[in-house]
Amino acid sequence: MGIFEKLTFTKLKDGLAKTREGIVGKVARLLTTKTTIDDELLDQIEEILIAADVGVDTSLKIIDSIRQRVKEERYSNAEELNVLLRDEIQRQFANGSAGLQPNLLDLASKRPIVIMVVGVNGVGKTTTIGKMARQYVSDGKNVLIAAADTFRAAANEQLEIWAKRAGADMIWRPRGSDPAAVAFDALKSATARNADVVIIDTAGRLHTKVNLMEELKKIKRVLQKQNPDAPHEVLLVIDASTGQNGLQQAKKFCEAVGVTGLVLTKLDGTAKGGIVLAITKEMEIPVKFIGVGEEIDDLQPFDKQAFVEAIFAQ
Amino acid sequence: MFEDLSRKLEGVFKRLRGEGKISEANVGETLREIRRILLDADVNYKVAKQFVDDVKERAVGEHVLQSITPGQLIVKIIYDELVSLLGTSNVEITISPSPPTIVMVAGLQGSGKTTFCAKLASHLKSQGRHPLLAAADMHRPAAIEQLVALGEQLDVPVYWESDASAVAVAEQSIVHAKKNARDVVIVDTAGRLHVDEDMMKEVEAIKSSITPHEILFVVDAMTGQDAVNSAKAFHERLNFDGVVLTKLDGDARGGAAISLRASVGKPIKFIGVGEKLDALEKFHPERLASRILGKGDIVTLVEKAQERFDEEKAITLQAKIRKAQFTLEDFLQQLQEVKRMGPLSQVLGMLPGMSRLPQEATIDDNALVEIEAIIQSMTKEERQNARVINGSRRKRIAVGSGTTVQGVNRLLKQFDQMQKMMKTLRKGRKKDMLMGGLQMR
Question: Which residue from A152, A207, A269 is facing B195, i.e. has the nearest CB?
Answer without folding.
Answer: A269
